[in-house]
Amino acid sequence: MITAFDTTLKEMPTEEASLVPAVTVRDLHKSYGEHRVLNGINLRVNRGETVAVLGRSGTGKSVLLRLIVGLDSPDSGSVCINGQNIGGLHMDRLGKIRMKIGFLFQHAALYDSLSVIENVAFPLEHHPRGMSASERTNRARQLLHEVGMDGDLGKMPSEISGGMQKRVGLARALALDPEILLLDEPTAGLDPISSGEINNLILKLQRERKMATIVVTHDLHSAALIANVLALLNRGDVLIEGSYEDLERSEITFVKDFLKQSQEGVCRG
User: Fold this and answer.
1) Is the pLDDT of residue 154 over 60?
2) In whole angstroms, what is the distance from residue 261 CA to residue 34 CA?
3) Taking 50 as the threshold, does the pLDDT of residue 9 lie above it?
4) Does residue 171 contact residue 118 with C-beta atoms inside 8 Å?
5) How many angstroms separate the CA atoms of 115 and 137, rounded?
6) Which SS3 state, helix, strand or coil, does residue 104 take?
7) DSSP 3-state assignment of 243?
8) Higher-confidence residue: 260 or 265?
9) CB atoms < 10 A from the CB of 55, how many?
10) What is the C-alpha end-to-end distance of the chain, expressed in Å?
11) ∠ CA 173-178-180, rounded to 5°
12) Each residue of 29-59: pLDDT tens digit?
């Protein structure tokens, strides 16, 4: 049973705090008008764990990420980040929690008027430690090196490929050294080679940073490669949660159809 914790980590003994999931979603409901998007979602992500949320278009995958980061509010249910229920928090407190979360948007969402290095340095301008301009630049250089983009610092987003934009977006998501990473369709729209590069980069970051990661994707191959746990959504519910092998062994008709269509390249999310 998933428990929503109301105590912040700093109030807990270190050993106890280490047992609190990084992200806990409990009985989450969300509708837009008459359209029900999420219908009682439960999800838990521990530190160092990667959970891939799969499903077709309109199943609420991206909405789930928006609720987790506090960009939208659920109709009912709770989202806890490191044991803190974010529902109803004052914007100042929510802002501090968001600083622990890195978010890669589906289309990278880079600022067209800023160069690659300026895009990555942008989140650091309001860093609580008050970083100088040179410190921000050095930090951005380091992150771009980490994602293999240190040769394109001065280029504009329009001058680089979609896969390169995803790399820059990932570097920007890491700018504040987050404990939690949210990835919205990180391989969408990319060719197989670029997708493979992004998957390898995510695996590298997992090994080095041990973040709790939630990946929303329709890319079954990517999910099977990078995730410890796969959760398949259908009509706003988690239909099955487990390893890729668990999904393969499932006798649920929708799961079998989803796997078959994904493997045939028919299901395009």
Assistant:
1) yes
2) 29
3) no
4) no
5) 12
6) strand
7) coil
8) 260
9) 24
10) 30
11) 95
12) 999 988 899 999 999 999 999 999 998 877 8
Helix residue ranges, H only, the chain: 14-17, 61-69, 91-98, 116-121, 133-146, 162-173, 192-209, 220-226, 244-249, 253-263
Burial 83-115 (b: 16+ CB within 10 A, else e): bbbbbeeeeeebeebbbbbbbbbbebebeeeeb
pTM beyond 0.90? no
Distance between CA atoms of residues 179 and 84, nearest Å = 14
CA distance 31 to 34: 7
Q: Residue 180, SS3? A: strand
Average pLDDT for 76-88? 93
**Is residue 231 within 8 Å of 237, Cβ to Cβ?**
no
Res 250 pLDDT > 60: yes
β-strands 50-54, 76-81: how paired?
Answer: unpaired
- In angstroms, the CA 126 to CA 185 distance is 27
Q: Which residues pair with 180 in a beta bridge?
A: 101, 212
Alpha helices (H) in 40-90, listed in sequence order = 61-69
70-86 average pLDDT score: 93
Residue pair 81/180 in contact (Cβ under 8 Å)? The answer is yes
Q: Is 79 helix (H, G, I), strand (E, B) or coil?
A: strand
| 169-180 core/surface letters (b: 16 or more CB in 10 A; e: else) | bbbbbbbbebbb
Q: What is the mean pLDDT of the chain?
A: 87
| Selection from 114, 133, 116, 113 nearest residue 125 by Cα | 133
Cα-only R_g, the chain:
19
